[in-house]
Amino acid sequence: MKKYFQFSGTINGTTYLLRMLFTIILSIPALIMIFAFFGVFAIEYAEIDMQNPESFDQAAFEKKIEENPDEFFESLTQSITPFWIISIVCLLLPVIWFSLAQYYKRVSALFYENRLNVFAGLIVFELIADITAFKYDNWIGTTFMVGSLLIFFFMVLKDSGIEEHEG
């Protein structure tokens, strides 16, 4: 288990693809926690009586949000407590660490001599791609998205020339 989280060794493209898919499974607990947060918030904001859930009026709840969306979002931001933040961050840390370790191992297999420079460059590119995708909703975000997809396909399909991978 320890080898999956270490930044050493190399992996082939198939293993890289499978481990990247495994990151989706690793992120399920964080997604459950996020859904739990929104569920608890919805129950509190809609003032649902858990003793009598039939009394919940969906139309009245929607009308309450439509009439004052600022109050809804203010209440949502006030519901974010240190418990929720710490819980979600703690659940996402292993996912991020595992993902970066696999990224590094595949880069090491493809670019062994310049692995640190290539790894840093790819991480910077991915961060810029994520920031531009959220900040700008135009062709720049799409261009970065296509670039990220091409990098992923390259990482999966390119033969590293290494017979036995250790990682």
List the SSEs and their pairings.
Layout: H1 13-26, H2 28-45, H3 58-67, H4 69-79, H5 82-110, H6 115-135, H7 139-157
Helix pairs in contact: 1-5, 2-5, 3-4, 5-6, 6-7
Overall geometry:
elongated
| Percent helix range | over 70%
Task: Give average pLDDT, whole number.
Answer: 87
Q: Which strand-content bin applies to the residues?
A: under 5%
Written overview of the protein:
By secondary structure, the chain is mostly helical. The protein has one domain. It has helices at 13-26, 28-45, 58-67, 69-79, 82-110, 115-135, 139-157.
Essential attributes:
167 residues, mainly alpha, elongated
Care to give the gist of this entry?
By secondary structure, this protein is mostly helical.
